[in-house]
Amino acid sequence: MHFQSVAPKYAYTSLNHLKDGTIVNLYGIVKFFKPPYVSKGTDYCSVVTLVDPSNVKLTCTLFSGNVDSLPKIYKVGDIVRFHRIKIREYNGQMQGITSVGFASLTFDGTVGAPVVPRTSSKVYTFMDEEQKIVEELRVWAASNLSVCGPAAKLSGVQPMLFFDLTCQLVGKAKVDGSSFLLKVWDGTKCPYPTWKVPVEARDVEGEKVLLHQLQNLMVDILVYDNHVQLAKSLKIGSFLRIYSIHTKQASAVDEDVSHIEFHLHGGTCYGRGIGVLPESNPDVKELKDFNFPLFGFWLCVCIIIIRKFFLILDFESRLQRCQQLPVTVLTDHQDLNNTELKTILNSTAPQQYRIRAKLRTYKPQKLYQSIKLHCSKCNSLQEVPDGDDFDFILQGSAITAPNAELQNTSWYDSVMWTTQDEKQRKIAIHFVKHDEMLQQPEDTLLMIEGGTLKEVWKLTKIFKCVIPVRSTEEDLELLDLSAPFLLQGNIKYYGCKQCSTPKPIKSLSSIAKQINLFSSVLGIELLQYVFIMKFTLIDGTGALNAYLFDYEKFFQIPASEILSNNFLQHKMQMTMNTLCPPGGKLDDLPWLECFIKSYNVRDGMKHQVYYQIFDTTVAEDV
DNA sequence: GTTTAGGATTCG
Which of A81, A82, A190, A330 has fewest C-beta within 10 Å? Predict the structure, then answer.
């Protein structure tokens, strides 16, 4: 056919038929290689040792002023096709060397992998015949060459050895004339303490947020001498394979435990060097770990934070802010005179009084039972749902897999992955876009589908706002309102089932930046946490039951925070113990000054006067 | 149409 006559026909020489002084074309399996490095002359150099089914080896020394025209070999076992390589004899052995017009193709050596050539040539011949040769070489290599084990990860490094690391460049810094620092991460955590090269944070090039987030995960690799020039030119965020890193166990004078140092020594022995991997590389894909395309830098940051989160399961609880313990009770306005309880009991309601009384007893004695949820619209009170309720609702919603159609919209970006366990649960996280994302990724509002109670809880530890959602056919929607519709730090926000009319999540797109508007936009009537207590007050003239209905003012503790905060619970118990010492005699009880108001409640024919404490705060002193 | 490196771990 006409087309065939146009394509040049290449003859390939097997490695046992090479002759001194010839220029040939050949195929080979990479047995050894040095990734391109800067030579002492004018060019880049790469040394490649090949083997083929004739079982003869050929070491080639390849030079080029353009690093891209050297073969793109990433690992031993890759298959190469060289065109126009010159054969010479050197030290009694055949040697390959670049000649004019040298060109190369490189293929993954894995049996069954797509046969896609890596090359810098714009034009090259590659047809069915060539594809067949590559596939045959793969099969031959699989049964005749020893395969190296899986590449080492940071999580599997051992002291005192050399290994290749596939990783991402997070930061870099100049150290001195002969060494350069690379800060890299491979998605895992080194089990040993790792060495930190003393470099000022401001001298490290890289994304500050990322460097901060990954400070305990990434490792410092000090590269020396001939590798410095290449290291300097590396782009932050690029994927690297660093060959023959030396792990050295050492301990500083002031350290009890030894640490591991990572060195890329000078020279190119054993292929020591640095290679840049394209994003299409299968090992890079594995490194990214998630089966989704990357959408941009800020999302990578969020993903890395999440990954960090799922990797490190131990968290230091935040330091509780120190708060002074209050003891007695003060009043706000001072214009009213004290009124005896007897007088109050004999008066008609409604009226307001200032009183001086002692707290004889109070209910409920178990203080956590005093926390309720209050709807200011319908005035209903309800118990705070417990974690089991939430877990049950999350489990129910996780049965439906995230709808792929609802991933990545104009106002949020999504990541989805499948859990590694036997349940193969699908989790989707949707990051609502906002302007300051890059500076403070933790400020991102996110929505989660398919998460467990533990996962949702952990996410709230780093991200400001988390909304649990599920997919419908058209939109994301809130879960049952027995579950919190929004989690902010330790606080779970609930909506009133009676008064809320949940709207589709897409309503959020317009106000995604204003978190305080969430509930109204989503059609949720927000339930507020309140303390409800009954105080029995006495003053020697009579006894009166007054209700405390308090969001925050009386105890100076937000009712919303008490259930998730042991410190605040303790503080509240101490306060009550001071106001009403357990087992205390009447004389031992402190005096309380407070405002109460009386009001009428009519239920059919029954009429009753109730009393409620207002404008009163527990004092801060003593 | 020259050199570079020519596989075989640094010693910081």
Answer: A330
Burial class (CB in 10 A: 0-12, 13-18, 19+), A340: middle
The answer to whether A164 touches A242, Cβ cutoff 8 Å, is yes
Q: Which nucleotide is nearest to A64 (CA to C1')?
A: B4
Here the tokens at position A487 are 């989690």
Kindly report the length of chain A: 622
Element (H, E) at A521: helix A518-521
**For residue A138, what are the contacts with CB-CB under 8 A and spacing of at least 6?**
A79, A109, A110, A111
Angle between helices A387-398 and A453-462 (to 10 degrees): 100
Residue A513 binned pLDDT confidence (cut-offs 50, 70, 90): low
Please state which CATH number belongs to domain A22-144.
2.40.50.140
Q: In the predicted model, is pLDDT for residue A445 greater than 90? A: no
| Host H or E run for residue A250 | strand A239-250
- Which helix (H) or strand (E) segment holds residue A301: the answer is helix A297-311
Same topology, domains A154-291 and A328-370+529-618? Answer is yes
Find residues whose C-beta atom lies within 7 angstroms of strand B: A 31-32, 34, 39-43, 45, 47, 49, 57, 59, 61, 63, 88, 90, 95, 97, 100, 162, 178-179, 224-225, 244, 246, 248, 263, 265-272
CB atoms within 10 A of CB A351: 13
Write phi, then psi, for A327 (nearest 5 degrees): -130, -60
CA distance A610 to A594: 16
CATH architecture type of domain A154-291:
Beta Barrel (2.40)
What pLDDT shows up at residue A216?
Answer: 81
At A44-103, the pLDDT tens digits run 999 999 999 999 999 999 999 999 999 999 999 999 999 999 999 999 999 999 999 999
Q: What distance, in Å, lies between the first and last C-alpha atoms of chain A? A: 102
Round to whole Å and give the CA distance between A495 and A224.
Answer: 60
Q: How far is the CA of A25 from the C1' of B10 (A)?
A: 38
Q: Which nucleotides of B are covered by protein (CB under 7 A)?
A: 1-12
- Looking at domain A328-370+529-618, its CATH architecture is Beta Barrel (2.40)
Percent of chain A beyond pLDDT 90?
A: 51
Question: pTM for this structure?
Answer: 0.57
The full DSSP string for A52-74 is -TT--EEEEEEEESSGGGS----
Q: Are A450 and A414 in contact (CB under 8 A)?
A: no
Distance CA A77, CA A79 (A): 6
pLDDT tens digits, A324-354? 222 334 445 566 788 999 999 999 989 999 9
